[in-house]
């Protein structure tokens, strides 16, 4: 009987990505909830594939036979290795003076590790010369939604076109190049916005800071719009001295497009943020099973009401009183 039972024994491995999104520093740009995935093996080892790079995982194992699944082992925490990062997600190049340009870029969507530095490459357009490389230290998250970095490129020739591109690096090596941006220094500096917009998702009741970094001579004047309506006096909006916009205690009525328009004598430029405020989830339906000295509490997955693009919940909090 013992031999027959052992032949039917299998191992069930449960794998979960940890809720925390930081292994050392900014593991990736996304945060994942704890969702268990099961895999089985007829031997005492199993290679888990298709995992995310430089990510923490929790693993536990249980025996499985004709009689059912046994108790799980104590969980262990493992991490996958680093790799080279993806290319910077976006890049923009604006004229800052007659001899300088300002390049801005977003961090890679997947850093695949701890970023050590960026490399900004600059070369005259239509030139056979090799590019000049500038190393830039990555900045930490400052609380603004977009992790945008900038570098001023000085000593350039007025009116000459320059190509600029950026790479990101981890300890493993340098990642692929970003798209190229081209511009020329000018005596008449048109208003240019170096902040990079895009989609923004924020939880309800939180605060949000949207940047509108701009250059130009004369200094541009800026105007903020919410869904094409000029933002003037509003209890939740604050226009800061650096032209950024602070939004306090945000709710779903404040979702939509936020546009910062910068304008001077020679032209205009703008940046657009598509802000989506995530609603609160519905309350879960509880089921309780009493035991001699414990109670098993269970609930189903929670869905978000009236939301066409559901998001993954990060955690549940259980409250109980004696």
From TrEMBL:
Pfam families: fn3, Ig_3
Domain Fibronectin type-III span(s) in chain numbering: 87-189
Limits of the Ig-like domain: 185-278
Example GO biological process: cell-cell adhesion
Keywords: Disulfide bond, Repeat
PROSITE patterns to which the protein is assigned, alphabetical: FN3, IG_LIKE
InterPro entries for the chain: FN3_dom, FN3_sf, Ig-like_dom, Ig-like_dom_sf, Ig-like_fold, Ig_sub
Domain of life of the organism encoding this protein: Eukaryota
Name of the protein in its database record: Down syndrome cell adhesion molecule homolog
Organism: Eumeta variegata
Gene this chain is encoded by: DSCAM
């Amino acid at each position: 009987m013992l031999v027959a039972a052992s032949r039917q024994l299998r191992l069930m491995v449960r794998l979960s990505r940890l809720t925390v999104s930081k292994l050392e520093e900014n593991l990736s740009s996304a945060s994942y909830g704890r969702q268990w995935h099961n895999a089985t093996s007829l031997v005492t080892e199993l290679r888990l594939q298709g995992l995310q790079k430089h990510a923490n995982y929790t693993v536990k194992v249980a025996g499985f036979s004709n009689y059912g699944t046994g108790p799980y082992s104590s969980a262990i925490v493992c991490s996958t290795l680093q790799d080279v990062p993806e290319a910077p997600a976006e890049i923009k190049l604006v004229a800052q003076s007659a001899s300088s340009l300002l390049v801005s870029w977003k961090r890679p969507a997947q850093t695949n590790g701890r970023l050590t530095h960026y490399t900004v490459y600059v070369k005259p357009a239509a030139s056979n010369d090799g590019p000049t490389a500038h190393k830039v230290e990555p900045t930490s998250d400052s609380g603004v939604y977009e992790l945008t970095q900038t570098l001023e490129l000085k000593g350039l020739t007025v009116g000459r076109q320059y190509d600029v591109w950026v790479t990101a690096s981890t300890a493993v090596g340098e990642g692929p190049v970003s798209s190229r941006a081209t511009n020329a220094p000018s005596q008449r500096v048109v208003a240019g916005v170096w902040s990079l917009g895009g989609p923004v998702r924020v939880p309800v009741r939180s605060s949000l800071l949207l940047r509108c970094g701009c250059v130009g001579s004369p200094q541009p004047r800026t105007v903020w719009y919410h869904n094409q309506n000029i933002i003037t006096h509003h209890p939740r909006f604050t226009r800061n001295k650096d032209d950024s916009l602070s939004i306090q205690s945000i709710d779903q009525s404040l979702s939509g497009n936020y546009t910062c328009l910068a304008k001077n004598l020679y032209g205009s430029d703008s940046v657009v943020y598509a802000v989506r405020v995530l609603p609160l989830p519905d309350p879960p339906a509880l089921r309780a099973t009493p035991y001699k000295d414990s109670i098993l509490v269970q609930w189903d997955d929670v869905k978000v009401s009236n939301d066409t693009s559901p998001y993954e919940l990060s955690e549940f909090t259980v409250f109980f009183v004696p």
